[in-house]
Amino acid sequence: SMHRRALGMAGEDASAEWYERAGFAVEARNWRCRTGEIDIVATRRDVLVVCEVKTRSSDRYGSGADAVDWRKQRTIRSVASQYLAQRVGRAPRRIRFDVAVVTMSAGGPSVRIIESATIAGVLASALASVRLASQPNSAQISAPIETRIADATRT
Fold it and tell me: Are 76 and 37 in contact (CB under 8 A)?
């Protein structure tokens, strides 16, 4: 709906602003390819962050981070590898996958960044070869998102 699109855009604006305040340069927003879309790509020194933004109008329906399941994580990784393949410039030393949980209220947006997984020392060219965990077992499904994303990036 129009409302949801506007809400999502407001959440992405708030998240991009958060990264800029934290000293990052936002180098891409809503980058699309056939596989999917990345909401925000931000860089600071040798770290490149791929951020998925989840915007909620209130906390009533869960934290928002819950919406990033293993399937979505796999898509984000795949899109990220395609983004990096076409990206010009020095390859980042570290790639981090964040989830921005934005809650909209009368007082304006509140942004919480969950710094998810760090793929240490993975160069852009090697990112595509990172093996993803296939469907996690039931024990992993109940684990918090940070753990699940970390599990998915372990090779």
Answer: no
pLDDT of residue 10: 93
- Threshold 0.85, pTM exceeds: no
15 has a pLDDT exceeding 50: yes
Hey, what amino acid is at 108? G
Cβ 55 vs Cβ 47: under 8 Å: no
Query: Cβ-count burial of 112 within 10 angstroms (0-12 exposed, 13-18 middle, 19+ buried)?
Result: middle
Q: Taking Cα atoms as reference points, which of 68, 46, 72 lies closest to residue 132?
A: 72
> How far apart (Å, rounded) are the C-alpha atoms in residues 56 and 115?
19
Amino acid symbol at 22: A
Q: What is the DSSP letter of 69?
A: -
